[in-house]
């Protein structure tokens, strides 16, 4: 009996050693925080004065707007000139909110590359029917810069189309939310921090949209999301089309050199005609 008891104790000791060794060899679980995406870079300049500190003298327009970059407008494009709720194509005039005019305009632009030329006073909310017609009928759509001989090819998306784009499984989903107080640079993992964490990524400077800093912020996002190829501009619908066109220049670091190959332009969904089905 004593021999049997000693053998049992020896066997138990061996099993304990084997179990302990197995526990030691099992790799520890990776902490959850290591699975989080890397933080976004920040537009805040190291050592800069906090937002509440006195600001330097008002910057010049060139300091805020920067160099005017884009693509040469397509020479053969059909020019669609904005004038409030009306547009002009050559000598013809259309009011796209009227169904008959929308049909005529669709026939006029069908199969053409179109260059939309903004005036100073047309707001996005006035152009919903126009952009819906161009999206469905034009071969390609470009938006002209109001201050110089450059333009930007755009993919038009209404609000539903923009939501569908956001739901696609792809890295980045970079967009510029253009507000009256500046640009919010937003991604699939959060917004790009600016000088004030509670404010827009790129606040206005001297009452003007800061294209210089917008360009720098988009460059930081390109470095963070190297495989992202498209960028969406989402302007406030109460903003002038010309202001939105100026913002598109932030995607270019030099003439003909965009940071992101595809520019998406979000326009307001046209209101439903009375009696139409949802």
Describe this protein's structure:
This protein is of the alpha/beta class. It has a domain at 74-266. Helix content is 29%, strand content 22%. The chain has seven helices and 14 strands. Strands 1, 2, 3, 4, 5, 6, 7, 8, 9, 10, 11 and 14 form a twelve-stranded mixed β-sheet that branches. A two-stranded antiparallel ribbon has the order 12-13. Helix 3 runs parallel beside helix 4 (128-137). The N and C termini lie far apart (89 Å). Residues 14-36, 46-57 and 274-278 have low confidence and may be disordered.
Features:
278 residues; alpha/beta; 12-stranded mixed beta sheet; two-stranded antiparallel ribbon; 29% helix; globular; disordered C terminus
Strand % is 15-25%
Overall 3D geometry? globular
Q: What integer is the average pLDDT? A: 84
> Distance between termini?
89 Å
Largest sheet: 12 strands, mixed
Tell me the helix content.
25-40%
Number of helices: 7
Model regions low in confidence, pLDDT < 50 over at least 5 residues: 14-36, 46-57, 274-278
Structural class based on helices, strands and sheet pairing: alpha/beta
Strand runs, count: 14
Q: Evaluate the radius of gyration.
A: 28 Å
SSE series = HHEEEHEHEEHEEEEHEHEEE
């Amino acid at each position: 009996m004593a021999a049997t008891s000693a053998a049992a104790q020896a066997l138990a000791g061996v099993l304990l050693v084997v179990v302990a060794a197995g526990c030691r060899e099992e790799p520890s679980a990776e902490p959850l925080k290591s699975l989080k995406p890397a933080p976004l870079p920040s537009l805040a300049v190291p050592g800069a004065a906090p937002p509440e500190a006195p600001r330097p003298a008002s910057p010049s327009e060139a300091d805020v707007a920067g160099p005017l970059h884009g693509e040469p407008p397509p020479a053969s494009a059909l020019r669609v000139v904005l004038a409030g709720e009306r547009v002009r194509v050559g000598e013809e005039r259309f009011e796209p909110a009227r169904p008959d005019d929308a049909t005529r305009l669709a026939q006029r632009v069908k199969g053409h590359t179109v260059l939309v030329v903004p005036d100073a006073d047309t707001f996005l909310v006035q152009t919903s029917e126009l952009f819906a017609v161009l999206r469905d009928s034009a071969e390609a759509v470009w938006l002209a810069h109001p201050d110089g001989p450059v333009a930007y090819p755009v993919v038009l998306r209404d609000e539903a189309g923009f939501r569908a784009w956001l739901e696609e499984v792809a890295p980045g989903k970079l967009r510029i939310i253009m507000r009256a107080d500046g640009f919010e640079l937003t991604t699939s993992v959060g917004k790009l921090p600016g000088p004030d964490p509670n404010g827009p990524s790129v606040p206005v400077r001297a009452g003007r949209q800061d294209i210089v800093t917008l360009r720098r912020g988009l460059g930081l996002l390109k470095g963070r999301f190297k495989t992202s190829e498209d960028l969406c501009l989402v302007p406030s619908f109460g903003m002038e089309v010309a202001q939105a066109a100026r913002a598109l220049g932030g995607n270019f670091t030099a003439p003909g050199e965009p940071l992101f190959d595809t520019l998406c332009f979000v326009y307001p969904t046209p209101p439903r005609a009375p009696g139409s089905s949802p």
